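Forwarding the complex inputs:
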Amino acid sequence: MARQSQLKLNPPPDASFPLSGMIDVVFLLLIFFLVTQKPITEEVMINVELPAPDMSTLAADPLIPITIDVDKYSRDNIDEIDARLFALSEQDDPNEVLKDERLYYSFNGSAPMEISRLRERLEAVARADANSTIIIKCDPNVKYRKLIRVLDLCSELGLNSRQLVDKVVPFVPDPPPKRVRR
Amino acid sequence: MAKKNRLFSEEAASVPISSMIDIVFLLIIFFIVTATLDKDMQDENVLLADAPNGRPVVKQDPRTITINLRMDGSMNIGGRVMSADQLTALLEDVKRTTPDPLSIPIVIRGDRQVQYYYGMKVLDAIKKTGLYKVSLAGMQE
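Prediction (whole assembly, two chains):
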């Protein structure tokens, strides 16, 4: 009898989960992961060939390779420089102004040229023989993106045989980099 | 009267919470998995150069060695900073212990701002070991 009354006083606890609170937490987590996901930038690969240490593969190649030099005078912001070249007035002495602002890509030892000119040359090469080996000599002082730009141009034109060769020139390190991280 | 009761019964008015939770949990697990995938080898501090015509990575060889080259010229593999000599030693090790070493792809993820000199050092270190399947990473927006 006493036992029965006790049962009546303490009814069994509610067995269900606190679903609404759980949903709150879960939605918070979901929003957190949605927000922290990075914007999708796809990573791509550009294949390059390296010459053998003794350069024997280069000498044995029957084709005349095409050499592109990438020189240190190429400045970083290509579009800006293009715009400035375009805006030059006739009174300015172009040689003075352009001396260290022109993009110095050179093709088979030619005079330095802009990337658009280099592109024309490479298009001609690609039309003649898309299998020709392109040898890229890159100045150690240039930014890495310059090299990627040339390599990217080659793959756009379907020139898939590319060799990277060192250019032996003195290296001058840039001042320590500053970049504001977003 | 019976019809009316059925229409306005309490069951019909409630949201199907438990199935909703199922879906939400699935989404969460998806995001957790995709967030941690492949990030262990890629250095977040490296801002790659634009290469709109590069070859997208369709199926990556699980043996791929990814070398990150930061803006200050330091290189690391999976966050472990190393010198050029250490890199050569590591690659030699890999070459000795893997059955088909010449087919191991090596990816260099160079920062767009780093000077090519540092990339050259990495390439030299790779060249010494005789592994030639090298590609450079860029990105597409």
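Residues 19 and 25 of chain A are 10 Å apart (CA to CA).
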